Amino acid sequence: MSAGYTSPLAASLAEGLLERFQRYVRIDTQSQREATGSPSTPGQLELGRLLVAELHELGLTDATLDGNGYVVASLPAGLEGPAGEPGGSAGTGDGTGAAIGLIAHLDTSPDAPAAGVQPLVHRDYDGGVIELPRGGTRLDPETMPDLRDKRGHDIVSSSGDTLLGADDKAGVAAIMTAVSHLVAHPELPRAPLRIAFTPDEEIGALAGHLDLDAFGVRCAYTIDGGELGELEDESFSAVEVVIGIDGVDVHPGYATGKMVSALRLAAKIVSSLPSDRLTPDTTADREGFIHPYSLTGTAARAEVRTIVRDHDEDKLSAHVELLDGIAHAVVQEAPRARMQIDVRRQYRNMRQFIERDPDVITAAEEALRAEGIEPLRRPIRGGTDGSSLSERGLPTPNLFTGGHDWHSVREWASLQDMAAATATLVRLAGVWSQRRPGGDGDGGRVY
Fold it and tell me: What is the pLDDT of residues 93-117, one digit of tens each?
């Protein structure tokens, strides 16, 4: 974290932010793989309706929830405030700045239990092990290094038997709290803002139904990162590889020379993959991996679902070829078995699209530093809505939320870091109020 970071603005936002966050995480918005339609689960609509009602109460009367589960709203530009005020900076601040988008996703991961979330607040964390009341879950700084730096923070966790939902309700709460603060302080300079809350990010929808022409922004930012100060303009490129195997099933007591077990072949494919490299637990930074996340089936039919990731497109292709080669080699040993391999493109590294418009990153760095936070630039070992949106022509880097250990019952967040994320959004609105539509790098978009 930024050494010695303190902020009266963030401190003033923290308790209202916490109240919103606790309210949002109690709504079960877990998305569902292989569901048809958008959103994949009704809980996302429930949260969407709540957010629309709250936005209307704040005066954003155009806030709507569409049939695909997308919440969209507008906050007009603000007026001039003195240079150096929260959100302010030297410049004319006349409200003619480019419109920017703030985006967070409504759903939570299907990788851990998500029903009945009970958020707990551990005030003034003492640096030791946090014993959660359910599931025997422990938050141990010895095995969770990010927790070590949060002594004195207020730590928010689940009760231990569900995920928390900071991914990405910390982002949702940060946006809502920043909007509330800007509405309450019309003297603060701000660019016009467009807000979007999107469904099914965790299962790869990646804002696919967001109408960019109607959204009408210069650029956007997802608020979906982790550690204080994170500013991410590079993500994995990603594919999912689904391997289906049809075997030959007979009564096991009379299977000699007859049975070909699809399940055993699928298990052999998984066990034949490298275990000392190209796995999530043996790679870091820009190294990619092949990750089987599901193996299901019977002797008659089995399926292996695998996600393949890399920041480099050529290396990604090589990983897919390796997996394909292993799968074919295994199944060829059983000529009567049949295999199908479906390679599904999910998203591309957003860096190649964002770097065409460097002002988007420069503005975010300026906002972070205005809040007293040194930007932490590193690649995402994952993807966000911004990966897809950037490829579609809307540069969308990712900002931090203060959440950690996502997709697990050990998920937690620092209230102080969530408040810092919220304050950064207030600053960001002010920074963009000084930038003019039609300036360098606007890509010709109309505001």
Answer: 344 568 999 999 999 999 999 999 9
CB 172 within 8 A of CB 197: yes
User: Which domains, ranges and CATH numbers included, belong to the chain?
Assistant: 8-235+349-432 (3.40.630.10), 237-346 (3.30.70.360)
DSSP string, 358-377: THHHHHHHHHHHHTT---EE
The 3-state DSSP class for residue 30 equals strand
pLDDT of the residue at 275: 96
User: Which pLDDT tens digit goes with each residue over 299-316?
Assistant: 999 999 999 999 999 999
pTM for the model? 0.88
Q: What is the mean pLDDT of the chain?
A: 92
Cβ atoms of 71 and 197 closer than 8 Å: yes
Preceding amide of 312 cis, omega within 30? no
Our measurement of the distance from residue 77's CA atom to the centroid of its chain's CA atoms, rounded to an integer in Å, reads 27
For residue 293, what are the CA distances in angstroms to 241, 290, 303, 343, 435? 11, 10, 11, 15, 45
Catalytic residue among 28, 54, 107, 224: 107
Question: One of 201, 234, 246, 357 is an active-site residue; which one?
Answer: 201
Q: What is the DSSP string of 62-92?
A: T-EE-TTS-EEEEE-------TTSTT--SS-
The amino acid present at 441, given as its one-letter code, is G
Encoded amino acid at 317, one letter: S
DSSP reduced 3-state for 161:
coil
Burial 137-149 (b: 16+ CB within 10 A, else e): bebebeebebbee
Has 126 been annotated as catalytic?
no
Q: How far is CA 324 from the centre of its chain?
A: 29
Q: What is the pLDDT of residues 11-59, one digit of tens each?
A: 999 999 999 999 999 999 999 988 889 999 999 999 999 999 999 999 9
CA atoms within 13 Å, Cβ hemisphere of 257: 0
Task: Using alpha carbons, list the distances in angstroms from residue 196 to 193, 222, 267, 348.
Answer: 10, 9, 42, 21
What string of DSSP letters covers 313-366? HHHHHHHHHHHHHHHHHHHHTSTT-EEEEEEEEEE--THHHHTT-THHHHHHHH
Any catalytic annotation for residue 85?
no
Per DSSP, what are the bridge partners of residue 401?
none
CA–CA separation, 200 and 184 (whole Å)? 31
Q: Helix 42-57 to helix 8-25 angle, to the nearest 10 degrees?
A: 140
Task: Name the residue type at position 32.
Answer: Q
State the CB neighbour count (10 A cutoff) for residue 205: 22
Q: 326 near 269, Cβ under 8 Å? A: yes
